[in-house]
Amino acid sequence: MNIANEIKVEILGISKNEALARSIVVSFVSQLTLTIEELSDIKTAVSEAVTNSIVHGYSASVGFVTIECRLYAGEGREAIEITIIDSGKGIEDVEKAREPLYTTQPELERSGMGFTVMETFMDEVAVSSHVGRGTKVTLRKEINKGKSS
User: Fold this and answer.
1) Residue 134 belongs to a domain with what CATH number?
2) Of the residues 48, 70, 78, 81, which is catalytic?
3) N- or C-end of the chain: fewer Cβ atoms within 10 A?
4) Is 78 designated active site?
């Protein structure tokens, strides 16, 4: 598949912008032939990734969250790739952070299910993080998987 379109947006990492991030991604991916379920899955996963950047990456500060979206098309298939990047504090142990119910902030009543939710709704979730430099989460989903054109 080839890149059919792409965007890159930077937003201030504050909770008021979580809905904005979701809206930007939904508007962009709407050029694909999406089912309501696929659209809902993408919104949920993006919401979790952006929330993680804001709450965990910038827990004691404010920084920017970069959202990169790429649409792929070809060979009768379509796919979306969404990358959420922050330059916050990073994750010390990515594998531990991906475990269901693991949270570094239980006092804030966090469920520790962010990565689990992302993995449930997307086909692939890749996480790269460096302490003191930030985190990059890439979400991938094939659209209308298993359907022929």
Assistant:
1) 3.30.565.10
2) 48
3) C
4) no
